[in-house]
Batch of 2 targets.
Target 1
Amino acid sequence: MKRSLFEQPNGYTDSIRKGMAGARMLSGRMTSGRLSREEQLARLNEELKTADAVVIGAGAGLSTSAGFDYAGERFLYYFGDFAVKYGIRDIYSGGFYPFPDAETRWAWWSRHIYVNRYVDPPKPVYDDLLKLVKDKDYFVITTNVDHQFQRAGFDKKRLFYTQGDYGLFQSMDPAVQKTYDNEAWVMEAMEAQGFVKDEDGVFRPPEDGELRMRVPASLIPRSPDDGSEMTMNLRSDDTFVEDEGWHRASVAYADFLRRHEGLHVLFLELGVGGNTPVIIKYPFWQMVRDDPNAVYACLNFNEAWAPVEIEDRAICLDGDTGAILKQLKE
């Protein structure tokens, strides 16, 4: 009898187990690589051409490089009224603000979702990455929740969003193990606050008139299954819903790794910081350590290093991830 998705291999928990094992077994001594920057760029270019498969591990630094800043001009353009009234200084911290009522909270979240999920990034970083790997056997595991891989054209069957998706809601009742697409709701909520679409179909603040900082009570999203208020499908605690799509992607990731064991695999880590290293960074180190045919590459700003145990198969490029990918593409 065919096993259900929930009974098949779990790439997420397998990855964390590998990461924990790697953290215990590696010495902790780090290196930025033996070669010069030019030599490392040349080697990465060659690895992208010759590898049997590429496993991409992406963190927040990749989206930041693509222009998804959570503060500054972009924040003030869409959230300036919230900054003035509530003293919020960036999009990330605003997601934790104790707003006075649900109507205000969902006004914030409609904007939060829209600018990070339904708008193309200012820079073509994801497009450049796709051009580098589109003809390879690749798979993407990411802690990002902005859906930008799929927007850029990556095959959705080769993507594993481990921590959720800005484009999905879940019931406040974790017993309802389902997620719900929120695109239509987001567009309606943006319009309800007074945002207007430009000629390219992008919502902008109105030139004349102020934005409303509340949505109508009728727009507070509720689960069609139990009527409870919804929340974001973002991993923050054990109420996070791992729905059928999440499990399917987890199985696909585990299967991809299994099928490529012992082959020449490039583990390409992009913009992964220290918040959740056990999901991508540590497992990549461990898998390269265990497989002499595997190669590890890390592209990151001020955090490009690898354990000395894999120094001979490590490529560490410090700098803006998008700029490095552009160099490789060209």
Note: The chain has twelve helices and 13 strands.
Target 2
Amino acid sequence: MTAGSPGPDGDDRGREDHEDREPVEEPGREPAGDEPLTARSALGLRAVLSGVALVAAAAAAIVFGIIANRDGSGTAWGAAVVCVVVAAIAATDLAVIARRARGR
């Protein structure tokens, strides 16, 4: 059975009706339904995850820095740099979340 053809019993359940489809939202256009009233943001969860990442990455950077300073290992310095970059990204994300939360 192909899309758009009647089913084996002659009914039209498999047929696609283009008239029944919802209109496609255009960018910059006000939504037609109740989306703004029921939409929920995940800023709280995002803030918690970024806070945990910031603390964990900063702690790991300190530990890897101490290990690298003690052993002189290039691998430990690389890991410390990666952790500092992750901490910076988490801090930036927290700043963006705070700005968006003030905009509410």
Note: The first helix runs from residue 35 to 38.
